[in-house]
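Summary for the steering committee. One of the milestones for this cycle was to obtain a three-dimensional model of the protein with zinc ion bound, which we needed before selecting residues for the alanine scan. The sequence and ligand used are listed below.
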Amino acid sequence: MEYTSARGPRSGIGELVEAGALVKLMKKAGEIHGHFCPFLAVGVKAGWRAVTELRVNSAGMEDVVAIVETNSCFSDGIQVVTGCTFGNNSLIYRDYGKTAVTVARRNGKGVRVSVKLKGEFLNEREPETMRLFQAVVAERKGSESDRTRLMEEWKRVGFDMLDIPDAELFEVRKVKADIPSYARIFTSVKCSVCGEDVMEPRVRMKSGKPVCIPCSGREYYQLSGDGMCLRRDNG
Ligand SMILES: [Zn+2]
Ligand SMILES: [Zn+2]
């Protein structure tokens, strides 16, 4: 298989991707996610499936983008495996509340992987663990040892999920993705109230003077045209 290969600091992860080393990729994902859990595993698998279908391996220079439709644990698995992150401007977040990702090349040629597991999937597969989860996480009850036990169980369930066949987990289809243009580089303007530098398109005017958004007191966040998008380039 011929990949657009990752070079530089991501080459190690790139090799794991090419080798299909899902367990090792999951361990890498745990390093940034902070714990092992089922949807981190699903994100690792979905990201791997997408980059493998597309034969890309991002070096984090916006040659490949990932569009995630949820900000759950899933998205951290995606970031590690695809190399498309919040910080390198290749992660686009569309807040649709769906466990799905589209990985696409710059020309829009992409693959969308959506998770088709039913909500009750984990309840049926892991009733004990889900009862523990309910008590510790949802109801904030449970002792310190319940918490420790949950983290161990969650880890086991997560790694187990790596073995579920893709056909049971995913709907995969080729798509033509709508990719925003490259992030522009903007000049900075000093806020007249707090004195901090602000990226020019985020500056607001107050009494004829430039201010940052918090100092403007007007708005916290401005939606882009396509939903909440971490990477906005429309000024
Ligand atoms: Zn998690
Ligand atoms: Zn300010």
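Key point for the committee: The chain has three domains: 8-117+153-176, 121-150, 184-235.
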